[in-house]
Amino acid sequence: MYARGLEPELRRQLRRGKSVLLLGPRQTGKTTLLRGLGADLSLSLAAPSERQRYERAPGLLSGEIRALVERGKRRRRPLIAVDEVQRVPALLDVGQELIDEGVAQFVFTGSSARKLRRGREVNLLPGRVVALRLDPLLLEEAAPRAIEEALLFGSLPAIRTLARAADKETDLGSYASTYLEEEVRQEALVRQVGAFSRFLELAALESGRVTNYANVSRQVGVSALTVSSYYEILHDCLVAERVEPVTRSSSRKKLTRASRYLIFDLGVRRLAAGEGGQPHPTRAGELFEQFVGLELIRFFRLHAPSVRVRFWRDPDGPEVDFVLERGRSYLPIEAKLSARPSQRDARHLRVFMDEYGAKQAFVVCATPRPVRLAAGIRAVPWQDLPEVLRRLNL
Predict the structure, then answer these.
(1) How far out from the chain centre does Cα 13 lie?
(2) What are the residue boundaries of the structural domains of the chain, listed by start?
(3) What is the pLDDT of residues 297-353, one digit of tens each?
(4) Alpha helices of 125-223 — where are they, by DSSP H?
């Protein structure tokens, strides 16, 4: 398996005596991380027998942990790992009790922030746990052999480890149908099954584009308000990343204010959209842009959470694929699936730099080596993106 960049931070928080809530989409490696922690008691609520046991009597866990403490007469608190806690949210109340009493330390994992938030009775342990997020593989964790591999098959660890393309296709199809169509819909309590399935396919096709609720509403056959709630379902279930626009401007009155949504994995996106294995060249450019956007979001979520990833678009003029924002500082980034970047690729970056006072900008592309395009603007190979981001002074 791959060494995950989040693991050192997870272990550091545990050494500090903190309990952790580890969120992440299914099959990103949460369970594998748990196995390596050497927990004194591990529970997987994905197992029906385990889930049903605690659904009927959540307080059993408290008694089991107290018995473990008494039996071992430990000098340290036992570490308790609870996988897929969103299936029995009441166990968070048990965790709060034992954390407050200093009886035990916990690592909870979950693949749905929505189910943990829903209802007044759900306890998210404010101030008692450190919330961390495990995403699909970053470039610094495991760069694909070729960009086509990432665009077609994504970056889920379980998919990346497969050797045969046919096996990757089969498993991605299973993920798209079983997890997206069944589990996400069930957790969200969606009653219009057909409408949600049509929405899911359209959301995958529209991934990365500025969201137009009215247009999606007409195609799906539900209200724009319902479409908005469906996107929130995808976001809360960790299936889609929301990218907000930069709207502050002293000179432009029509800056786009609608968000963009990126499906969290390009392989899952492709199967959910019903697309084949060879995207049209124009479509490949859009997918590469999403690839870069997802890498930016994941990188800063792990290394610098105060940096926000946005975009900038004037419907009547220039646009920039992604903008890194920290306070009032901006850094614009364009994504171009080209091996021969030119000054034309940098023209909108220059407009943004002039209007917002940005000192540097990048074009992420397929060039084999960095290229200076203009003052403060460089084209960089997509493989070098992690190194470029680490050197930034935002």
Answers:
(1) 21
(2) 7-133, 147-390
(3) 999 999 999 999 999 999 988 999 999 999 889 999 999 999 999 999 999 999 999
(4) 147-153, 157-160, 165-174, 185-187, 193-205, 213-220
